[in-house]
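With this grant's support, we have settled on a layout for protein records. A representative record follows, to show the layout.
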Amino acid sequence: MPKVVTLGEWEHARAELLEAEKEATRKLDAIAAQRRRMPMVKIGNEYDFVSSAGGNTSLLDLFEGNNQLVIYQFMDNGGQDVCEGCSYFTNGVPEHALVELSSNGISWANVSDMPISQIDSLKEKMGWKIPFYSSHGTSFAKDCGVSKMFMLTAFLRDGNEIYRTYSCTRRGVDRIMFANNIMDLSVYGRQESWEDSPPGWPQHPTYGG
């Protein structure tokens, strides 16, 4: 349990932490500005993604008329094994958030090398309604530098030309997850073994650690 102090002592400690938080916010703002100035690389549009409806869909189609697209590459573990981390991430992507993204010209899609039959079974089991396509049999994941790992990738289109503008994996993806960010505000944090927490704080082995 945290130390119990007076209100004045707590407010002093909070003010010190706030200065550190403001410094981190300014640094993140500067990083975001640098990200917006990143160059981009052209990517082909020859991929045939398969949708739940069974038809083939192009990368251009995934933009759904918007000029930006963000894809979460859901890891393919092979066989019927499903990535726990990717499922945890996808659970945190609410449908209404996609409406907000689209209002700013950004479309969202999950893509995986898993066959569409496996994706459909997983969507039904988990209750997911978000766009989810199979890239099985294509080189899309490899061309994006992800192979069989997970990755978040941002694309921009200029007419029918498509460009990759940004990508991140591991902690880069971790940082945008709603549940993780809320847990980081709580006194016990995520309760994972990698965290720097006071002695006696509840912790469990880190997923994938």
Residues 61 and 155 are 13 Å apart (CA to CA).
